[in-house]
Amino acid sequence: MPFPLLFQFLLTASNEYEWQEIRVEISPTDRYVMDSITYSLNAYSYNPENRTERKEGVSFHNLTDFSSTYTFFPFESFYHFMRFKSDVPEAFQLLGEAGLTVEIPSMKDGYLVMNGKRAPFISEQQMLSCSNTEQEEDIIPPRTARYYTLWMVYDWLETRYTLYVSHSKTKKQRIVTGTLHSEMPVKYHITHRDVSLKN
């Protein structure tokens, strides 16, 4: 588990007889806490089917003399890519990048909506597991190795956010603004080739 980010500085205390340096450490997570986050759900940039990613390596070897059913989950090997960018570079340090999670929006039926999905509020690009559990069943002929190629289509989304935080002691509120970038897998296409395993 990573150590929390600390702000470190020195204070010099003195009187007419002596002086002393005092090291002070402040944890950002002790200073500010999140109150709420809002997104621009009516004004955003959206590009459906923005890019396609190809993956190989999924295969099934039927060594029997009978047809066999192979079940796999196309979305499980792909990720939802997203990243928070802040208009105030030090915002992530003030909040402490470890432990803070926020709700994020997603597209549904052509609209940007909140559906309870959450993600860490950090500056690095994130690779989130897909919640789609859609499955495919395929019939493999006897003595056949089938090699699959998956083509995943991603939607691209960008919207503004406003994060409200307050000081844990003084209760003074600060407002952090920025942009959420998102690339989410939405649909797929599968091709395959067969190799005979007959001797």
Could you please describe the fold and organization of this structure?
- It is built from one helix and eleven strands, in the order βββββαββββββ.
- With 199 residues, it is mainly beta.
- Strand 10 (144-167) and strand 11 form a beta hairpin.
- The radius of gyration is 25 Å and the shape is elongated.
The geometry reads as elongated
Total DSSP E strands = 11
Quaternary structure classification: single chain
Using only C-alpha atoms, the radius of gyration works out to 25 Å
Main sheet summary: 5 strands, antiparallel
Q: How big a fraction of the residues is strand?
A: over 45%
Helix content: under 10%
Spatial strand order of the main sheet: 3-10-11-5-8
Instruction: Output mean pLDDT.
Output: 81
Number of helices: 1
Low-confidence stretches: 1-15, 20-26
Structural class: mainly beta
Distance between the termini: 53 Å
List the helices and strands in order.
EEEEEHEEEEEE
